[in-house]
Design goal:
The chain is mostly beta strands. Helix content is 1%, strand content 65%. The chain has one helix at 293-296, and strands spanning 3-5, 9-27, 31-49, 53-63, 68-77, 84-87, 93-94, 98-116, 119-135, 139-149, 154-163, 165-169, 174-177, 183-187, 192-199, 202-206, 212-216, 220-221, 231-240, 243-252, 256-261, 264-265, 270-272, 283-291, 306-312, 317-322.
């Protein structure tokens, strides 16, 4: 069995003997021994420093016939200090289904692995920064982070946070009640609420005004409710020789699925991050299409108004008529 110690140094007594006589010796990398005259016996009392982990101490002796003999001792220096764990700041409320948990571990020798809710991540370094993605359920979440060094010393920390979700009323007239069943509020279709406990058939929610109550789980949905038709913004039809360049923006409270200009579907709708002063302009897309003479009239005096139609995910649509002009 390997010798173990917690001491940073080891006192060893070494005896070197040879019937013909020893002319030299060496103990590890710490000491070389040379004799003026060969000796048949030599005793050495030596203090040897030990590193954490495995230490092999080797003594070599050579006699007058240049025959060498060596002997070694293996000592395993251990320590009892556990690793250190530092967790990056975690919000008290998390709205997403997953969260990147930042973890920093360190040890005075070597961290063997980190465990997050039982899932191990090898380290084998004295320190390391990790990012582990953890699932977030609605309600209280607990994440146990454990770091174990190569000597099996362990440190453990518990991370707590609340998982919440934004959900939306499916229809008009959804009742929000307190624990005793008293009516607190009426939700209209598409109204958002913050869900902090979801145990069907009941879901506990927090209203925008800070009041908490219970709603029937079947009356809420995760997706944004599409309640408004799509629309147009800053649409221009520019005469350019014998063609017309039509540009502008379309928007919807959920998502635009298709746009037609003079009967032609626009293939590329580019999402843009701009603010449009229109109700329901939560998602905005830019578009551009060039129409050939057949779509707008063969001759300048035959230029026709251009009809646009935009559709959203539930079939709501809006139309717009624009007249081509020369823009300077």
């Amino acid at each position: 069995m390997m010798n173990q110690t917690e001491s940073p140094q080891l006192r060893v007594k070494i005896t070197i003997a040879d019937i013909l006589g020893v002319k030299s010796g060496k103990v590890g990398a710490w000491q070389e021994i040379r004799f003026r005259e060969p000796v048949r016996r030599y005793e050495l009392d030596q203090i040897i420093p030990l590193e954490l982990g495995i230490n092999t101490i080797t003594a070599i002796a050579t006699n007058i016939e240049d025959i060498s003999q060596e002997s070694s001792l293996t000592v395993f220096r251990i320590e009892r200090e556990p690793p250190q764990i530092v967790i990056s700041p975690v919000p008290s409320q998390i709205y997403e289904d997953q969260f990147p948990l930042g973890i920093r571990v360190s040890d005075n020798h070597m961290v063997a692995f980190v465990s997050v809710n039982g899932r191990e991540e090898p380290v084998m370094q004295s320190h390391k920064d990790l990012t582990v993605t953890v699932p977030v359920a609605i309600g209280e979440n607990r994440v146990v982070v454990e770091a174990v060094d190569v000597f099996k010393n362990a440190a453990r920390t518990l991370v707590r946070f609340n998982g919440v979700r934004t959900m939306y009323a499916k229809n008009d007239g959804i009742k929000v009640s307190d624990a005793q069943g008293n009516l607190l509020h009426i939700l209209m279709k598409g109204d958002p609420v913050t869900v902090f406990s979801h145990t069907p058939p009941q879901t506990w929610v927090e209203l925008s005004r800070g009041v908490r109550g219970v709603v029937a789980s079947s009356d809420l949905q995760r997706e944004v409710v599409d309640i408004l038709p799509p629309g147009f913004w800053d649409v221009q039809a520019k005469l350019d020789g014998d063609s017309v360049l039509v540009t502008g923006f379309v928007y919807d409270d959920k998502e635009v699925v298709s746009l037609f200009v003079a009967g032609q579907q626009v293939q590329a709708l580019t999402p843009v991050n701009i603010t449009i002063p229109k109700d329901g302009a939560k998602k905005v897309y830019a578009f551009s299409i060039t129409l050939k003479p057949a779509a707008v009239g063969a001759l300048p005096d035959e230029i026709k108004p251009i009809e646009l139609a935009v559709y959203d995910t539930v079939g709501f649509f809006s139309t717009l008529i624009v007249v081509p002009k020369v823009y300077r």
